[in-house]
Amino acid sequence: DPVESGKRIAAHQAVDEYILPHHKAVGIGSGSTVVYALERILQKPELHHIVFIPTSFQSKILIIDGGLKLGSIEQCVPGYTDLDVTIDGADEVDAKLNAIKGGGACQFQEKLVAEAAKKFVIIADYRKKSEKLGTQFPSLKIKRRRSTRPPRIIPPPQWLRGVPIEVIPMSYKAVQQALQIRISAKPETMALRMAKMKAGPVVTDNGCFVIDAHFGPIADPKSLLRDIKLITGVVEVGLFCGMAEVAFFGMEDGNVSVLR
Ligand code: DER
């Protein structure tokens, strides 16, 4: 599967280049790509003395099940940039290394741990590489058929979302209202993220809801982030602007494209 092998080669190369034997504390992101980063770390005993800081219950379980040393972000407060590096996936990365994150609804802890690190490294498969944020989600991919039957509408895959916005549960209506009338960029569509294996909305590791808001092409992610973050009830926005030092993309041809 070119997507899974893309995730693996990107993750392995990133670990080899950015997680080093002299490191003391490393942040581990969330999602499916970061699983391959753990896979590579487990292959390198010279990294097993490192304390790993999770960004979700999922990444905490990955660290524990890998038998690696588990730390907590609270332990890293003194200098606050005490983590040597944080490695994490993304939903879309533009040419300036701005990223949409939160496909796994973990963006709050991911941003906290990414900010606590001296270096923030993104790993992704080729689908996430984009010129401009918001252009990777064909809102609905229409598969043209030769026959005269109407085209089959193919909804975007799970990860092809808008900007994930984590909100305090009671505020989700107010935030949706504010997104419509209070900020300059108007969402084309937005929806409360509903759970698949549980009735009702997704509840994050922090006990919050997630609103996915599609804004179309995002020319200025930094000002969109600021506008959304200022809305009462918003906990964190899945826009990581100017944070990543490098992004590794596993391409379909088996090569890794590195954006620095
Ligand atoms: O939720 C997140 O930000 C994750 O990093 C996620 O978006 C990346 O998920 P993937 O590695 O499964 O594509």
Automatic annotation (TrEMBL):
<keyword id="KW-0413">Isomerase</keyword>
<dbReference type="GO" id="GO:0005737">
    <property type="term" value="C:cytoplasm"/>
</dbReference>
<comment type="pathway">
    <text>Carbohydrate degradation; pentose phosphate pathway; D-ribose 5-phosphate from D-ribulose 5-phosphate (non-oxidative stage): step 1/1.</text>
</comment>
<protein>
    <recommendedName>
        <fullName>Ribose-5-phosphate isomerase</fullName>
        <ecNumber>5.3.1.6</ecNumber>
    </recommendedName>
</protein>
<comment type="similarity">
    <text>Belongs to the ribose 5-phosphate isomerase family.</text>
</comment>
<dbReference type="InterPro" id="IPR037171">
    <property type="entry name" value="NagB/RpiA_transferase-like"/>
</dbReference>
<dbReference type="InterPro" id="IPR004788">
    <property type="entry name" value="Ribose5P_isomerase_type_A"/>
</dbReference>
<dbReference type="GO" id="GO:0004751">
    <property type="term" value="F:ribose-5-phosphate isomerase activity"/>
</dbReference>
<dbReference type="GO" id="GO:0006014">
    <property type="term" value="P:D-ribose metabolic process"/>
</dbReference>
<dbReference type="GO" id="GO:0009052">
    <property type="term" value="P:pentose-phosphate shunt, non-oxidative branch"/>
</dbReference>
<dbReference type="Pfam" id="PF06026">
    <property type="entry name" value="Rib_5-P_isom_A"/>
</dbReference>
